[in-house]
Amino acid sequence: MSISIHAVSVPVFVNSLRNMSVWLDKAASEKPEAELLLGRLAPDMRALPAQYQMASDSAKNAVARIAGIEAPAMPDVEATFAELKERCARTIAFVEGIDPAALASGAEREVELKFPNGMGYRFSGQAYLTGFALPNFFFHVTTAYAILRSAGVSLGKPDFLQHLGPPNIQASE
């Protein structure tokens, strides 16, 4: 049995972006937004808004590159929780709108990733998704979670995995 490119990308991106959006609601109810927006894990790391922006970019660019289409431009201008939540919503809408057939046909498409310094990588679509896009996406998702958690927001693993909902196996009585 094989699993589709769509199944290992779109729902994964959407679930995590929705979770990230809800984290901001919890954060806003517990801590001053202005303080949290400045949060970072180390002096040389980017602050919370950038982690949301880069998670968004990772998701939308991944599906666009694999499908062979252009990702929507989303300038990194978000400066409030409401704007970060809107970015998550726009990214979700784009990712959900990708035709599963376009992703399937992109599994072997060459994806070239170039960095500003001119270096980069060349992958097949499938190798790009599994070897770069998903790990990069989860780096930024996890960093956003860790920034909020380290600032004292009462997030836990159930918040990270919120998309699962309540357990579907109940303890026997």
From TrEMBL:
Organism superkingdom: Bacteria
Pfam families, sorted: DUF1993 (PF09351)
SUPFAM superfamilies to which the protein is assigned, alphabetical: DinB/YfiT-like putative metalloenzymes (SSF109854)
InterPro entries reported for this sequence: DinB/YfiT-like, DUF1993
Protein name: DUF1993 domain-containing protein
Species in which this protein is naturally found: Methylobacterium oryzae
